[in-house]
Design a protein that fits this description.
By secondary structure, this protein is α+β, with helices and mostly antiparallel strands. Helices cover about 30% and strands about 15% of the residues. The chain has a four-stranded antiparallel β-sheet. It has a two-stranded antiparallel sheet with strand order 1-2.
């Protein structure tokens, strides 16, 4: 990147010149460009929402099309719902949950991301402190406050109706669906 310093000198900048806030980071709490993004990634110092990056091990990640065809969709859904219940139950120890979402995307910045929205910022703060550095399924858990508070804006509407042509590499959240019975049970237990 070349920029004019005002005195006529032209220099090569080592990083791109930052131009405003990154709309993707603001909407989904992650950006495919990561730290190389030319826009600002303003991380909140406190929020009702947490992002736990790469917590869920997507069974389709890194699999050949032949291996994917061998996966039983019912078993995959059953394993996902076990994961969902396990995470919900652990997170609800820190405060009442409003929403829990797991990304089904395959792009590096979204794969396996878990998003949770608490009723209060205090619940999110307790969960962040209580989970940081713990291990889950062979991975270190490093939760961070997320700017996402409206998951309707973060999700891919085309995916929701089965029409996303970007597949798992879409930049908006493809959220794994949990059965209504499981969700109803978890919400009822929380009350």
């Amino acid at each position: 990147v070349i920029r004019n310093e005002g005195n006529g000198a032209v220099i090569k900048a080592s990083r791109p010149v930052v131009v405003g806030n990154c709309p993707f980071f603001f909407k989904i709490g992650a950006c495919r460009h990561g730290e190389k993004c030319s826009r600002l990634h303003n991380r909140p110092t406190v929020s009702q929402s947490l992002l736990i990056p790469h917590m869920y091990s997507n069974p389709y990640m890194g699999q050949s099309s032949e291996a994917i065809s061998q996966l039983n969709p019912d078993e995959v859904q059953e394993a996902f719902e076990f994961f969902y219940e396990d995470v919900w139950n652990e997170l609800s120890k820190f405060g009442e949950l409003l929403e829990l979402h797991v990304c089904d995307n395959l792009g590096d910045h979204l794969v396996g991301n878990v998003y949770v929205k608490f009723v209060s910022e205090e619940g999110a703060q307790k969960a962040k402190a209580g989970l940081n550095g713990r291990w889950y399924n062979g991975k270190v858990v490093n939760p961070e406050f997320s700017p996402v508070t409206d998951f309707r804006e973060a999700r891919c509407r085309q995916y929701d109706i089965g029409e996303c042509n970007r597949g798992g590499f879409c930049n908006f959240m493809h959220l794994t669906k949990v059965s209504k019975d499981v969700l109803k049970h978890l919400v009822h237990e929380q009350q």
